[in-house]
Known about the structure:
Elements: E1 2-7, E2 14-19, E3 23-27, H1 30-36, E4 40-44, E5 50-51, E6 59-62, E7 67-71, E8 78-83, E9 88-92, H2 100-105, E10 107-112, E11 128-130, H3 132-138
Parallel strand pairs: 3-10, 10-11
Antiparallel strand pairs: 1-2, 2-5, 3-4, 4-9, 6-7, 7-8, 8-9
Amino acid sequence: MQRYTGRCLCGMSHFSVNIDNLDVYACHCTLCQKWSGGIAMYLETNAVPDLEKASIAPSYFTSSARGKRWFCPGCGCPLWFELTSSGRYFVPWTLLELEENDRCRLVLAAEIYTETQPAFWRLTGQYARFSGTEIEALDNHCLLAHEN
Length: 148
């Protein structure tokens, strides 16, 4: 497990997270598309992100029955997604202050909600692909990185 710090675009929201592995999950759901402006790519944290001292408290909205989306009230930058049914948290990897050796270890582990993936957007490589129905069935039972 490693501890990483992250921040929003304006720098008002600083946080830190513990992450076990650098497996990236690419989400194609329509809510993530709207939230990120395209494809959203997350790392799973071990627990709720910790706010740093002197950081502005993030705001959130309940975007669906499945989760809350946390964001900086200063610049509106997406900070993390909370899967409320299981208490799992996912942070955009691009917000984290990663060393070059950590950036080299990032691995695309899975694409999810593939049924709403735009036809013009294709990622390459060998990784899992899950529809919305498939991934929602896994939400409460496992970490994706540990699936066979």
